[in-house]
Amino acid sequence: xxxxxxxDNSAIHEYLTTVLQLSxxxxxxxxxxxxxxxxLLAEQSAETPLPYDLVIVDILLPGTLSGLAVINSIxxxxxxxxxxxxxxxxxxxxxxxxxxxxxxxxxxxxxxxPMKTLLELIESKHVGDTI
Length: 131
Prior knowledge:
CATH architecture: 3-Layer(aba) Sandwich
Distance between the termini: 9 Å
Number of helices: 5
Strand order of the largest sheet: 2-1-3-4-5
Helix content: 40-55%
Shape: globular
Order of helices and strands: EHEHEHEHEH
Low-confidence stretches: 127-131
Radius of gyration: 14 Å
Number of domains: 1
CATH superfamily: Response regulator
Strand content: 15-25%
Largest sheet: 5 strands, parallel
Number of strands: 5
């Protein structure tokens, strides 16, 4: 599976990338939201497939574009059935509940979490896909 990873913490970013690659996934990493959005939304057409099958987004990001703004922008342009999103964040339980309410299709994991849980979520997004 092609995964876009938006995570600003370099240690977490490297760890997630390594585990996902060892699990057979191709990972493209981004440390700022604009980079991910530029890649996702550039020259989108029916003939041009999305660069990712799934994106993993951290909510608490430095700079002007939060993870929530990134998800909002993705959902304005790409429907949930076309691009699943998983949030991994150290945000408060209250903040994560707000994300669940606003984006019911987005899976949310609060850091720290077992890697097995993330891998199972990714695999569940794969079920029914044609490869």
